Amino acid sequence: MIQPRTPPGTLELLPRDQLAFQRMQQTIREGFERFGFLPVETPVFEYSDVLLTKSGGETEKQVYFLQSTGALKEGKAPELALRFDLTVPLARYVAQYENQLAFPFRRYQIQRVYRGERNQRGRYREFYQCDIDVVGKDTLPLAYDAEMPAVIAEVFRALDFGPFTIRINNRKLLNGLLRGAGADTPEKRAAALREIDKLEKAGEQKVRDGLTGPEIAMAPEAIDKLLGFMRVGKGDPAVVLAELAKLDVNDELFKQGVAELNTVIEQVGALGVPSGTVAIDLSIARGLDYYTGTIYETVLNDFPGIGSVCSGGRYDDLAGLYTKSKLPGVGLSIGLTRLFFQLQEAGKIKPVENPCAAYVTIVDPELGAECRAMATELRQAGLNVELAAEAGKLGKQLKYAEKVGIRFAVIYASQEKARGAVQLKDLRQNSQRDVPRTELAAAIKSTT
RNA sequence: GCGAUCAUAGCUCAACUGGCAGAGCACAGGACUGUGACUCCUGGGGUUACCGGUUCAAGCCCGGUUGGUCGCCCCA
Description:
Blueprint: H1 15-34, E1 38-39, E2 45-47, H2 48-52, H3 56-60, E3 65-66, H4 69-73, E4 80-82, H5 87-96, E5 105-114, E6 126-135, H6 143-159, E7 164-170, H7 171-180, H8 186-197, H9 199-202, H10 204-212, H11 220-232, E8 234-235, H12 237-246, H13 252-270, E9 278-281, E10 294-300, E11 310-315, E12 329-335, H14 336-345, E13 358-360, H15 368-380, E14 385-387, H16 394-404, E15 408-411, H17 414-419, E16 422-426, E17 431-435, H18 440-447
Parallel strand pairs: 1-5, 7-9, 13-14, 13-15
Antiparallel strand pairs: 2-4, 3-4, 5-6, 6-12, 7-10, 8-9, 10-11, 11-12, 15-16, 16-17
The protein binds one RNA strand through strand 6, strand 12, helix 14 and helix 16.
């Protein structure tokens, strides 16, 4: 026999947990639509060259390639690959349908993506991303950078997993600062950003070591200044912005970043995002290279261990490899699979009750037709109803109904027929009573 | 790609220094002649991941293989 098992890094659920998962997904979908975003789906696999353009070395190592066995035998390079995020397919999509889309193009996309990761807790190789993005033509107002946190705030409010914090930062600000601190090439700055991103997890000393290392080689005084800066640049937006205004940094990029951050924070407030849910955090950097301005990370305050459950940012020219048009965008992605898994582990996800309201049993074979008719009546009354396939032991049928979590059992056999009623049994409350057949649906509805 | 750790029934785990491979849960049947969830009884289930070695004797000791898990890198 073959061991029944799933490859590691995949999430599979029992039906009632699956319902809970889908309910979360639905809440997210409704939140996105509340802001006027429209759905899009793209294929799970794409041409390899389309997918790999912008990825860079690290991501490419994690890409699953797809190849027919025929091509494999001929030793050909794989033509297809599984998508590893939804942003790159979006770029392709926008470039491909550019002349049919209205700009700014607002879409949401909730689909699975694939990454060849090493096994690790809460890390998946197949997982859901829930993306929203706005893509502009030539330009995209900063107002959209402010809309993103507003959408996310609404979604996480509706998901109801307690308080959360949307952390905001700006790459320009960081890059300007790093440039002033001696990271004079884009490569050095990218490496420095990755170091800074570790600040919370690894601590100051580790980051200091990384920044002094051969790759970046930043001067100790510059690092002191930078880390000091990170310390004040965290928390209440008004306070951080006031601190930033006081700083005397003579760098255009830095100043532009600060100005953008000011605008975004101001507009986020105007969009009704509760104060306290948004914070500035200059230490978040996001590993992905394509972000150029605003960047976001969201954490659940009660579950700091989960890490960022939603992140994204602004990218000036993502579709540059697919079209000559300049298409700047800003977007965010919720990592639903990990979020669900971690919350479930923390006991915050309860299996959803079986939406099937009643199980119609069949005890006497000669009354089977009437039982079947009764199930149909209940369904026509708008109830979800499961029906026994054939007459059998009542105990077995009740046990089954109990196990799948159906609350009511309907029993109609010779005794009930003699009494001229139907027995309605509440398996949860351990009670039963006779109900006229015509009032059965109403009786079930009134208790649910 | 690197490191650590583990592998016994469908699941969770026992088995002393190497000495007959077990329990709970789950499943099936019964106690209960139309009544689940509680209680009691009975039952099926195993090449102890795989291959080799040491030994009178290996689940246990040694070597290898495969796989899982947890970290690093990176990320949702």
